[in-house]
Amino acid sequence: MPQSESLRFLFFSDLLGKKVLRADGSLLGRVSDLVAVIGEPYPPVESVVVRLGRKRWQLAWAAVAEVNGAVRLGPEAEPRPAPEAPVADRVRLGEEILDRQIVDIEGAKLVRVNDLHFFESKPQESRSQLRVAHVDISFRGLVRRMGWQPVVDRVVSVVRPASRYLKDESMLPWKLVQPIESSPGRVRVEATKKALASLHPADLAEIMEELDRVHRQVLLERLDVGTAADALEEASPELAAELLEKVEPGKAADILEEMAPDESADVLSELPGERREELLGAMEAPEAREVKELLVYPGNSVGGLMTLDRIQVYPEQTAADAIAEVRRRAEEVPIVHEVFVVDNGGALKGYATLKDLVLSDPYTPVSQFAREPPVTVAVDDRIRDVALAAAKYSLVSVPVVDKLGLLRGIVTVDDILAEVVDAR
Fold first, then answer.
1. Does 349 share its domain with 383?
2. Rounded mean pLDDT, 171-191
């Protein structure tokens, strides 16, 4: 650290409630909050909110001349009434962060903020700059907030000197956390979307499950369409339906279109009939048609579990043609294990794995190396039947055919596993 600059660390609890004195020593009030500017890994504190009775003032942190037993202001300090409404790309740390649940991006879990940690730098001949460094999620942080830390620390150090409490420094860097509730603003919205999109969909779904109804909805609104679709695919259909029931129809339809057809059908089946029809009407025609086809099957049947998304080619097409089809539909069918071979009428003739395609001569017709499926299932079969078939033949996906042998869809092993786990 350059000698021209001093550095010290403060907790929010060190500042909260401190007297704020004007340059002449008269009392302006007490610190009730700090306002930080969003957009940097360690956001700078822009202003301090001061309360005196029912009056709330706000003044620039740059007007703070000194912080010791009290917050002392410089002669240029100009208090102004604190705004009632949130300000774009600003966060009121006490009101919006302290005691709230936030998302730990690195740990992919919900945590509660017990205190905030700042670093204060003071360049020579200049006023101090205060920045948010960490959020403190430790029990010791809560004790500090309550004003009991000196007493509790002393007692614990005597009774249990090796206690984890005395070493508990569970602080997360600000850049690795994401508040669920936040002030509006383009910078904040974009940062939130980017941070939440970095989480695995399964972790995001688990976080949603842990939140109450209000905060689940807030979190969903913070997600872009693609991230929301991925997360809701991992959530239970009941939870996804609860969330989408309150989303604007256009956005809800966009999310459903991004989801796999079978997942969309599961969610829509949980919605009231009127809302279901509203969302189907708002969806693009091809996606709505696929979902409607799946909605006719009972949820506990193979038809209710299968997906229509699969790669299929004709017998005369070559290995190169099949690989090109996989590439063409990569966005629609993100996970591909095999390619199914059907005749011009749609009847299932065989399948080829990706390994088969890669190892075959590019100009060889798929009919020459495609193999016959060891088993198929019907749309009205039980889920138990398809689970047993997949286990017996070690299949990644099981083709679903009708009475005429036409390929109607496939059931993938991950969907089978999810059903088995949910049934336990």
1. yes
2. 70
